[in-house]
Amino acid sequence: MRLSYSIRSFAVPSYPALAILALLLAVACSPGADTAIEAAAPTVGDIPEGGYSEPFVTADVATLNATLLLSFGDNILHSSAMGGGHPIFSMSHPPRVVDEHAKLVEILENEGVRVLDIRDLLTSAINNTPREELEQFFRDVFPVTADEIIARIDEIDGDSITNFRDDHFYLKAEDGTFDPLFPGMPSMYWSRDFAISSPKGIIIGRGKAFQRSIENHLMRFMVQHAPELADFPIAFDAYDHEVYLDGGDLIVYDENTILLGVDNRSDREAAVLLAQNLDMDVYAVSMPPWDRRSGVSRQLLHLDSTFNIVDEKTAVVVPFFMEKEYNDSNPMVPILLGLKRQIETWAEHTEYELGDPDSLQTTVDVIPEVGWLTHYAAGTGEGTELDTKLVDWMREQGFTIVYVGGPQGDLPIEKYVLERAMLELRWQGSNVVQLGPGKIIAYAHNIYTNQALRDAGVEVVTFPGDSLSMRNGGPHCLLMPLVRGH
Question: The domain spanning residue 220 has which CATH number?
Answer without folding.
Answer: 3.75.10.10
